[in-house]
Design a protein that fits this description.
Length: 79
């Protein structure tokens, strides 16, 4: 048996999960009205990411025309 993924609009997702604001660069993008919630996995942002438990993070990913926000942190691969 499989479970269908739940689809949430941005307002519902923000209210449910209460995303943290990026303290390193609050103007980075993806702002719900209080500051940026995106934290790239490079540079000065890595120290901040290390303070957040992986179970409290999601990873935004996009493949062609579809996007997903699965729970957990996906470590970046080497280029």
């Amino acid at each position: 048996m499989s479970i269908a993924p739940e689809t949430l609009d941005e307002d519902t997702w923000s209210e449910r999960y209460k995303p943290l604001i990026n303290p390193v660069d609050p103007s980075h993008g993806f702002d719900f009205g209080d500051g940026c919630t995106l934290v790239p996995a490079y540079g000065d942002h890595l120290a901040y990411l290390a303070t957040i438990p992986p179970e409290s993070t999601t990873t935004s990913s996009r493949l062609r025309t579809r996007s997903a926000t699965p729970p957990g942190r996906v470590e970046p691969s080497e280029p």
